[in-house]
Write a structure and sequence with these properties.
MddA, EC 2.1.1.334, methyltransferase activity, transmembrane, 66% helix, methyltransferase, globular, two-stranded antiparallel ribbon, mainly alpha
Length: 247
């Protein structure tokens, strides 16, 4: 019975987290969703700024605090370790759902690309960013990243084993292709409003801040292996010679 509950919890957490991921595409792209970045809750400018900043801070705190090893050690005293990752994914999905639901529209126009070829190029770049994001998760282990591998191993009665450190494909070009893809999706828009600019700037700041902590944690765990990787492969901006890093 316990195994069924754990697997069910992991599956529900995955579905909620992945649903938030899919919704984010429509949210940033302003299509196919009821609340988008430029079609959110109408509000006065000051209210919109305060609420949107608070929403971004809430996401940043949840995403950073729950990812820290010290928090994980404390958290797993109360939550079974096999669902720790699923709980993180679930919390992320719920926080994003609130952000999408309560986002205030800030319609002031920053730029608007009207040239058809330029507009199409930026839209294609937007979709390329999402392809990079999703593909990056499968290049390491999508199911471990989203907590499904952990609950599957419980179902099989097998102990959890840490994944081997690998640098496949895009990970030979930049150390964090997942975040590289997200940065593209944040900024690749033919029509940039003040609200979109706030969201993109806030998330970019969070990504740059969070990566410093993640790199410190990875260096602590992997030691010289990760230091060598850092010396050869750039963090976010690709450079041609990075592709020579061996698999």
């Amino acid at each position: 019975m316990k195994r069924i509950v754990i697997v069910g919890y992991g599956a529900v957490a995955y579905l909620i987290g992945f649903a938030a991921f899919v919704y984010a595409i429509g949210f940033l792209g302003n299509f196919a969703v009821p609340h988008a970045i430029d079609h959110g809750v109408a509000a006065p400018a000051i209210e919109a700024l305060i609420v949107n900043v608070l929403l971004l801070v809430a996401f940043g705190l949840q995403h950073s605090v729950m990812a820290r090893p010290a928090f994980k050690r404390w958290w797993t005293r109360m939550v079974p370790e096999p669902i720790e990752r699923s709980t993180y994914v679930l919390a992320t999905g719920l926080v994003l759902a609130v952000l999408f639901w309560q986002w205030r529209t800030m319609p002031a126009l920053i730029w608007d690309i009207t040239w058809p070829a330029g507009r199409l190029s930026v839209q294609m770049l937007f979709w390329l960013g999402w392809v990079i994001v999703l593909a990056s998760t499968f290049m390491i282990n999508h199911f471990d990243l989203f907590g499904l591998r952990q609950v599957y191993l419980v179902w099989r009665g097998l102990p959890y084993t840490n994944l081997e450190f690998r640098t496949p494909l895009l990970y030979r070009v930049v150390r964090h292709p997942l975040m590289f893809g997200f940065l593209i999706t944040l900024w690749a828009t033919p029509r940039m409003t003040l609200g979109h600019l706030l969201f993109a700037a806030g998330m970019t700041s969070y990504i740059l801040y969070a990566l410093r902590w993640e790199e410190r944690d990875l260096t602590t765990v992997l030691g010289q292996q990760y230091r060598d990787y850092r010396s050869r492969v750039p963090m976010l901006i690709p450079r041609p010679q990075a592709t020579r890093w061996p698999r």
